[in-house]
Amino acid sequence: MSIEEPFPSIPATPGSVPVDVGGDISAVTTTLPDGHVEPPPASKTRMFVFILTMFIGQWALLSPVIFSVAYKVQIIDAANKETSLGIIVGIGAIFNLVAGPLFGVLSDRTRTRFGRRRPWIGGGLVVVALGGLILAVAPTIVLVGVGSVIYTLGIAAAFGSLTPFMAESLPSLQRGRVGALVGVGAQLSGVVAVLLGGVLLGNLLVLFLLPVAAFAMVFVLYAIVVPDELPPRSEHRDSPFVVLSQLVFDPRKHRDFALVWIGKFCMQVGLTFLSTYQLYFLLDRLGLAPAEAGQRLALVGGIGVLVTTLFAILGGFLSDKLKRRKPFIYAGTALSVAGLLALAFAHDVTTFAVSVSLVLASAGLFGSVDLALATDVIPERTQAGRWMGIYYVSNSLSSAIAPVFAPLILVIGGGRGNYTALYIVGAVVALGAALAASGIKAVR
After folding, report:
1. What are the DSSP E strand ranges found in 26-80?
2. In a domain, 75, yes or no
3. CA-to-CA distance for 175 and 178, rounded, in angstroms?
4. Into how many domains does the chain fold?
5. What is the structure's pLDDT at 400?
6. What is the CATH number of the domain that holds 188?
7. Is 398 exposed, middle or buried (0-12, 13-18, 19+ CB in 10 A)?
8. Which domain holds residue 176?
9. Fewer beta carbons within 10 Å, N or C terminal of the chain?
């Protein structure tokens, strides 16, 4: 089977102007009513390589978040693991809060013989490898925290230069389907992280460094296949203050983009509560051993991938075909709220599996359409790195705030594991995603 088969071709639109794209495909450009110039359709091979790179990159990103760091903390500080994990994840997310969009802005204006984005992805991978090594050998919680921060900074540099691809290189009619497949890949990468994590518990070096090595290998393919055009030459260099100021925008001027940002933040809070503490949920509430918990997470995740794939492809492709985004956001929010509420009262593996599957279905449906929605309302496509970096701040901020407040919620009632309260709060916050989407005007 050809790797290009999953991607249907995009027909030319009336009034489009043919352009030369180096023989990849017969492409067109289109000027939208808001003055933005749509990029020509990307080749199927190029889309496949981007999706593959995002899949492996998400594996490297999620492996520490949902399994390996939690397991490492369990080994070093079992008595205070919830609080220690919350602090480590929260501090790493705070660094990512600034680093992600900053690297996006810097890559927007980088000019090197290797391209605009590639140097930041390659350099980020070197930093990720260093962070993974520290995490593997760290004997104390403090060093685990240091390794986590270094790892996070490297991931921020790599993803800050990968995510602009959709806004820069895809027209709106391709974004939903690519976003859907990227969403499926993100969920599948989480399952891979848990499954391999359970197998590699006896070798921490491999546990932390295998995803990084895979990311580096696929980046080589990405660098060969995906062009990396340089930005226009600038006659002056901006000061660091000006660069940092690019991370701030006026939500009144760009209201729709601000509402997309808020919706992403609200949804991600609930997902962070699940991903950060699902291992401890199985250990503490259901009484499973670490190895058994890892196996259960992998099994549940495998089932969830099927559900996620169905909902992500359904949402991404239908939202492109129907030219509607918001109804799928509403449906994704409903699934997340239902899953988190069910999880709040789960006391057996079966209920846990059903609850997580609902949340993963939500992640697939919401994630693919929300990413397309963000690229639809991006204010300036020539600064895609900046705006997509700001978009992903919503993810970083939620990942910073949720683990900090989670230990406080878990001790409600005088115990240390009130998961009922944790996931009820997550469901209430996730509901804000639908409320935010209802206010978006430019996209239906």
Report:
1. 27-31, 37-38
2. yes
3. 5
4. 1
5. 73
6. 1.20.1250.20
7. buried
8. 34-231+239-438
9. N
Is it the case that residue 340 has pLDDT exceeding 80? yes
Quick one: the chain helix, strand, coil %, rounded to 5?
75, 5, 25
Question: From residue 304, how far is each of 73, 299, 360 by CA, in Å?
Answer: 26, 9, 6
| Separation of alpha carbons 214 and 58, rounded Å | 11
Neighbours of 92 (CB within 10 A): 29
Nearest to 434 by CA among 264, 313, 284: 264
φ/ψ of 431, rounded to 5, equals -60, -25
Token output for 125:
């991978």
Is residue 302 in a domain? yes
pLDDT at 219: 92
Residues 209-235, mean pLDDT to the nearest whole number? 82
Count of C-beta atoms within a 10 Å radius of residue 288: 18
Q: By C-alpha distance, which of 389, 369, 371 is closest to 380?
A: 389
Tokens of 102: 């900053």
What predicted TM-score, i.e. pTM, was given to this entire model?
Answer: 0.66
SS3 at position 24: coil
- Assign residue 288 a region: left if phi > 0, alpha if psi is -120 to 50, beta otherwise? beta
Structure token pair of residue 212: 């990084």
The half-sphere exposure of 71 on its side-chain side, counting CA atoms within 13 A, is: 26
What's the DSSP call for residue 113? T
